[in-house]
Amino acid sequence: MNSSPNQQALRVFLVEDAIPIRQRMAARFGAINGVEIVGEAEESGAALTGIGTTGADVVVVDLRLTGGTAMELLHGLAQGMSSVIAIVLTNHSSAWFRQACLAAGAQYFFDKTSEFDLACNTITRIAHERCARGLNYSIT
């Protein structure tokens, strides 16, 4: 985690079946100030359990997972954990996949190849907004 002691970190859960990619995601996202990687999974069932157990604020998920797709995870989040921000980060980034994921409950959708930095910037923005809200709450 990379945050100050008085700031609650943005808890990020990673769902990616390729270990080297998941490691890269953990390194990049975990280096963002105010972000903590709280868990990882390769498939949607384990991810839903882990997200609930860790109290994750954000889930970053690939479209294709071990034994399924992100769609099961997005539907599960929409039904039981609607406060979790879902970010799809995938190589399968056609307009059809983008629309399907957003319709299933994803708040963000990025192409792994061309928009990885944009995904990092989005997580940075979410973490900073969370920090600003926390500071505003403690001032009043």
CATH 2nd-level architecture:
3-Layer(aba) Sandwich
* Largest sheet properties: 5 strands, parallel
SSE arrangement, N to C: EHEHEEEHEHEH
Low-confidence stretches: 136-140
The number of helices is 5
What fold name stands as the CATH topology?
A: Rossmann fold
What average pLDDT do the residues reach?
89
> How large is the radius of gyration?
14 Å
> What topology, given as strand order, has the largest sheet?
2-1-3-6-7
Helix share, percent: 40-55%
Describe this structure in words.
This is Response regulator. With 140 residues, the chain is of the alpha/beta class. The protein has one domain (10-139): Response regulator (Rossmann fold, 3-Layer(aba) Sandwich). It has five helices and seven strands; from the N terminus they run βαβαβββαβαβα. The chain has helices spanning 19-30, 44-54, 70-80, 95-104, 116-139, and strands at 10-15, 35-41, 58-61, 64-65, 68-69, 85-90, 108-111. A five-stranded parallel β-sheet has the order 2-1-3-6-7, sandwiched between helices. α4 links the parallel β6 (85-90) and β7 (108-111). α2 (44-54) packs parallel to α3 (70-80). It is globular and about 35 Å long. 35% of the residues are buried. Mean pLDDT is 89; it is low at 136-140.
